[in-house]
């Protein structure tokens, strides 16, 4: 009977140990899966935050590359004779309230004037175009004037060119006109106190004939802006990589600051709990072993604390 009880106790201990080991393995797997999923979510979040930061920096730092506006010339006609009584002029409003050009960025302002190759324009020769930049309150920010004329063509060149272009002229695919480019500003920089909102044009000639005109404002990129525009992939990789390092460093420091001492304290508490459990388990085993030995008559009697503390007579 005693042997059966001993075997049952051994079997129960083996089963308990197996169950404990299985539960430990399952808990370890669950903990590893949880930590892996949490780490993956954190890495994905850091990557997306880095990409978003680079995109936000790109749109905040990079200016619009080009602005284009049509220029509609106006004039007053004369009643006494043919022609114009004043200079052809135009007003172009870039923006009403918000600032269009970026502070600290240099721009090239160019006016394209389309002129017919008419005898009148040939006789005029040189002409002058003036531009005035002002803010929304009418303050004159800057002014500039440029001169130009139609490109000279000899009579022989005209005949050869006309004979070659006759099919295109007859079908309307081309016309006898020239596009004159007038660079009004090479490196114009916006004034922070007086942002440009309106541009006024004036052609200083009464008899000039104009087909159309157009205003182009192009940003002269330099430095980091030049690299970000002309090498976007390399700049994006470097920018996102820098953001990854920065965000990961901040996250790791925050994680250690918030959860570091608590995790260390929990590890110490777990170690203390395990040691206490082992002590309890050893004490229980010793008491059980002593009981078994007493039952099997290996010891004449059971030792107790009271018997051990009695001094010799």
Automatic annotation (TrEMBL):
<dbReference type="InterPro" id="IPR009617">
    <property type="entry name" value="Seipin"/>
</dbReference>
<dbReference type="Pfam" id="PF06775">
    <property type="entry name" value="Seipin"/>
</dbReference>
<keyword id="KW-0256">Endoplasmic reticulum</keyword>
<feature type="transmembrane region" description="Helical">
    <location>
        <begin position="156"/>
        <end position="175"/>
    </location>
</feature>
<keyword id="KW-1133">Transmembrane helix</keyword>
<keyword id="KW-0472">Membrane</keyword>
<dbReference type="GO" id="GO:0140042">
    <property type="term" value="P:lipid droplet formation"/>
</dbReference>
<dbReference type="GO" id="GO:0006629">
    <property type="term" value="P:lipid metabolic process"/>
</dbReference>
<feature type="transmembrane region" description="Helical">
    <location>
        <begin position="229"/>
        <end position="251"/>
    </location>
</feature>
<dbReference type="GO" id="GO:0005789">
    <property type="term" value="C:endoplasmic reticulum membrane"/>
</dbReference>
<keyword id="KW-0812">Transmembrane</keyword>
<protein>
    <recommendedName>
        <fullName>Seipin</fullName>
    </recommendedName>
</protein>
<keyword id="KW-0443">Lipid metabolism</keyword>
<feature type="transmembrane region" description="Helical">
    <location>
        <begin position="38"/>
        <end position="61"/>
    </location>
</feature>
């Amino acid at each position: 009977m005693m042997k059966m009880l001993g075997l049952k106790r051994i079997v129960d201990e083996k089963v308990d140990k197996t169950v404990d080991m299985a539960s430990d393995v399952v808990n370890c797997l669950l903990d590893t899966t949880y930590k892996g999923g949490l780490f993956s979510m954190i890495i994905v979040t850091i990557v997306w935050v880095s990409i978003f930061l680079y995109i936000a920096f790109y749109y905040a730092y990079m200016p619009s590359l080009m602005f284009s506006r049509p220029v509609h010339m106006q004039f007053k006609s004369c009643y006494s004779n043919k022609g114009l009584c004043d200079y052809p002029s135009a007003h172009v409003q870039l923006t009403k309230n918000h600032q269009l050009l970026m502070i600290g960025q240099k721009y090239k302002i160019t006016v394209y004037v389309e002129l017919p190759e008419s005898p009148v324009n040939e006789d005029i020769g040189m002409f002058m175009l003036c531009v005035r930049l002002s803010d929304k309150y009418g303050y004159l920010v800057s002014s500039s004037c440029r001169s130009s004329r139609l490109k000279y063509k000899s009579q022989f060149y005209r005949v050869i060119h006309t004979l070659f272009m006759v099919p295109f002229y007859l079908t309307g695919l081309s016309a006898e006109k020239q596009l004159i480019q007038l660079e009004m500003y090479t490196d114009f920089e916006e004034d922070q106190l007086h942002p440009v909102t309106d541009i006024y044009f004036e052609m200083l000639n009464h008899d000039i004939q104009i087909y159309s005109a157009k205003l182009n404002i192009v940003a002269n990129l330099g430095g980091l802006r030049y690299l970000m525009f002309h090498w976007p992939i390399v700049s994006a990789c470097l920018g996102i990589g820098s953001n990854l390092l920065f965000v990961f460093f901040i996250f790791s420091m925050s994680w250690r600051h918030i959860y570091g001492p608590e995790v260390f304290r929990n590890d110490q508490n777990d170690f203390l709990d395990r040691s206490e459990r082992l002590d309890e388990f050893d004490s229980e085993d010793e008491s059980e072993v002593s009981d078994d030995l007493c039952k099997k008559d290996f010891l004449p009697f059971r030792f107790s604390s009271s018997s051990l503390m009695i001094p010799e007579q």
